[in-house]
């Protein structure tokens, strides 16, 4: 069996176990799918079923042990496990009707963030990454798996989130993926964040009048955590630079960082054009950092147009090379 097919089969097998076990436990404990998924993931990692006050029952314990017996996460690579957990989290989002600002970063967008960060940091041997709104950790894990494929690179990561349930899911998810990430429960807009060489963030979708302000506060505050020359890649509304807050954002942002790029993501990724996102690329002042001769602007072509998409990546590579 080819490696890709084997990995896909392992992902599907692990997801089926996670899903079935979660449904069994959620019914037994009369809890949400997400809370049950967290406990099932912890059981899988510990190789032991948690029992409190006689729950789950011996019957349910036996069923869970039967399900766990069909897989061995120790033999799976981190990316395979991430994808299986992602499928279970998508099920949780739908089943529990979780609010939109906790939605997962789609893989297509995560892969682009990873590609950009890898390109921008290709000459370094050590890298500390901060995700100030880590959520369940899907974006950070996607980026880490790509960067960890570079044996010469020593990568450390920190994730921050104000939601303890999301953080609990992120923690056990990283454990299962054999990925070391320091997690901090805090509000990234008002807490002193740890220093980092790179910041990545999928800004939460808000539904109140403060949404633009909150987005901007997250950007400002996390920029303060960047080391000299460090890059920030933010997934933001594509209309960010068209809003009433844009002039203030650019003025405050450029006091400490260079606005190096703004790339709109393919419209095909979004059911509603008003939900279109973009990648905001900034670089902290200091050291060898300089304003790019040309700010990287544009819209990614459709993923379906392979030739145009590869040409667009070629333009990005050429732009990165002139940054020095």
From TrEMBL:
Gene3D superfamilies: 1.10.150.470, Vaccinia Virus protein VP39 (3.40.50.150). Residues 104-296 form the DNA methylase adenine-specific domain. It comes from the Bacteria. Residues 12-93 form the YtxK-like N-terminal helical domain. Keywords: Methyltransferase, Transferase. GO terms for biological process: methylation. GO terms for molecular function: DNA binding; N-methyltransferase activity. InterPro entries: DNA_methylase_A-5, DNA_Protect_Modify, SAM-dependent_MTases_sf, YtxK-like_N. This is Class I SAM-dependent methyltransferase. It comes from Periweissella cryptocerci.
